[in-house]
């Protein structure tokens, strides 16, 4: 019996954590540290179904983690006696360097910091989370699991931007892709649920959360994905624009006199659904649409139009598609998004069963008809479990994972 794995996901102003039994897959305890750096910080902690909360200013990520560890000691389970086998850290950008789970050393931390130029919002927060946790747990393996890793195998034609090749090479400009842990986990679950060999399946995975991305996967290998150098490209998201004409950036610079940080903020935090109609949560969007709000209706239509474009592109990229899977907050819950994304595609062998689609069921399940050539599924993602399993391989009694870079 292995000890549990602590999984830490440090975002720009929040930290998610879970203590996971990586064998059974059960989350023993979990929590969310929010509003770091603001006066009204909050930590919500759950241990075996019981919720507890801490409110008060949280100066920085290091203090956030320290307070979270104090919650473990107070509310359970006490980490000092939990026998933690490993700590898994979600790291957003692995650049060209990291493409598999990697045991964290001082050199690895330095390299993750160096990659901050590619992920200025995320990698610095990941580094603080790693350094804080390593101080608290100096004797267990800490393992970085990279959001970009699964897309390391993208074919050259999918990862290359058609810009000056020397400029691209000098600045690391290429498609990296993100949400890789989720795309890999979900595509693996699709094969499990269907009792099929993953190596034989051509899959489209639609990770639709507040951030959203699509991928085309052939036999377990990622062939294309919608996010690019950064998580800004591709689908319409909660607050991100997804694809736009790059000329818009220059136009705004010149005509609206916005500097690069203001444009960055506009496209990452003030666009997408929120930019179009003021809300980024699909439940609120639905309420607005039901109340006759025209801007919300247009936002929804733009969202679905973009999603269908990517599905069409990946059907052709893969040639033959066996499965389409929806996952993450929107993909798992928004019945109408799934129905509208795949409406009218019977000629392409895609037939949604509307009753199956509308069924309230938390488990991974098929929502296409029995006669549909393409099997459509809803598959709950579980990035924390995937990270825990990857990290546990580095525990003293784990399987190990060969070369780490
Ligand atoms: P994620 O980033 O995967 O946590 O997804 C978060 C998003 O999922 C939220 O912003 C909502 O838009 C959406 N979401 C969560 N629950 C529901 C629900 N019950 N119905 C529709 N959308 C939901």
Could you name the key traits of this structure?
6-stranded mixed beta sheet, globular, Nucleotidyltransferase, domain 5, 405 residues, 15 helices, 8-stranded mixed beta sheet, 14 strands, 2 domains, alpha/beta, binds adenosine monophosphate
How would you describe the overall organization of this protein?
The protein has 15 helices and 14 strands. By secondary structure, it is of the alpha/beta class. Helix 10 packs across helix 11. It is globular. 42% of the residues are buried. The site of adenosine monophosphate has 12 residues, from helix 10 and helix 12.
Relative helix content: 25-40%
The H-level CATH homologous superfamily of the largest domain, spelled out, is ATPase, nucleotide binding domain
Biggest sheet layout: 8 strands, mixed
For the record, the count of structural domains works out to: 2
Second rung of CATH, namely the architecture of the largest domain: 2-Layer Sandwich
Would you report the number of β strands?
14
Instruction: Measure the end-to-end span.
Output: 28 Å
Low-confidence parts lasting 5 or more residues at pLDDT below 50? Answer: none
Average pLDDT metric: 95
Strand percentage, roughly? 15-25%
The oligomeric status of these chains comes to: single chain
What is the N-to-C order of secondary-structure elements (H for helix, E for strand)? EEEEEHEEHHEHHHEEEHHHHHEHHHEEH
What is the CATH class designation of the largest domain? Alpha Beta
Which molecules are bound in this entry? adenosine monophosphate
Q: How large is the count of helical segments? A: 15
- How much is the radius of gyration in Å? 21 Å
CATH topology-level name of the largest domain: Nucleotidyltransferase, domain 5
Label the structural class: alpha/beta
Strands in their spatial order, largest beta sheet: 5-4-3-2-1-6-8-7
**Outline, from the CA principal axes?**
globular
């Amino acid at each position: 019996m292995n000890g549990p794995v602590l999984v830490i996901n440090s975002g720009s102003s929040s930290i998610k954590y879970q203590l996971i039994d990586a064998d059974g897959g059960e989350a023993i305890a979990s929590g969310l540290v929010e509003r770091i750096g603001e006066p009204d910080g909050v930590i919500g902690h759950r241990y075996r179904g019981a919720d507890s909360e801490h409110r008060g200013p949280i100066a920085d990520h290091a203090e956030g983690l320290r307070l979270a560890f104090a919650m473990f000691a107070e509310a359970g389970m006490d980490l000092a006696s939990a026998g933690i086998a490993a700590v898994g850290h979600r790291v957003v950008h692995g650049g060209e360097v990291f493409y598999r789970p990697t045991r964290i050393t001082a050199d690895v931390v330095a390299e993750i910091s160096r990659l901050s130029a590619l992920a200025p919002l995320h990698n610095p927060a990941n580094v603080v989370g790693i350094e804080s946790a390593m101080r608290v747990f100096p004797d267990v393996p800490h393992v970085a699991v990279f959001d970009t890793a699964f897309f390391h195998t993208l074919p050259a034609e999918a990862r290359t931007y058609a810009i000056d090749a020397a400029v691209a090479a000098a600045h690391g400009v290429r498609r990296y892709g993100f949400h890789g842990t989720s795309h890999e986990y979900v595509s693996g679950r699709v094969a499990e649920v269907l009792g099929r060999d993953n190596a034989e399946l051509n899959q489209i995975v639609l990770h639709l959360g507040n951030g959203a991305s699509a991928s085309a996967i052939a036999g377990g290998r990622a062939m294309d994905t919608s996010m690019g150098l950064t998580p800004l490209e591709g689908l319409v998201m909660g607050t991100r624009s997804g694809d736009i004409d790059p000329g818009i950036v220059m136009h705004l610079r010149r005509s609206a006199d916005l500097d690069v940080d203001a444009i960055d903020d506009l496209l990452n935090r003030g666009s997408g659904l929120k930019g179009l109609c003021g809300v980024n949560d699909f439940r609120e969007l639905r309420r607005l649409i039901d109340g006759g709000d025209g801007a919300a209706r247009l936002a929804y239509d733009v969202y679905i139009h973009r999603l269908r474009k990517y599905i069409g592109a990946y059907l052709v990229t893969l040639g033959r598609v066996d499965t389409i899977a929806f996952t993450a907050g929107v993909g798992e819950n928004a019945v109408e998004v799934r129905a509208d994304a795949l409406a009218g595609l019977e000629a392409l062998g895609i037939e949604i069963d509307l009753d199956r689609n509308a069924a309230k069921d938390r488990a991974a399940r098929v929502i296409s008809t029995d006669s549909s050539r393409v099997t459509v599924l809803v598959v709950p993602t579980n990035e924390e479990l995937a990270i825990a399993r990857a990290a546990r391989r580095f525990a003293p009694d784990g399987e190990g994972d060969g070369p780490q870079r």
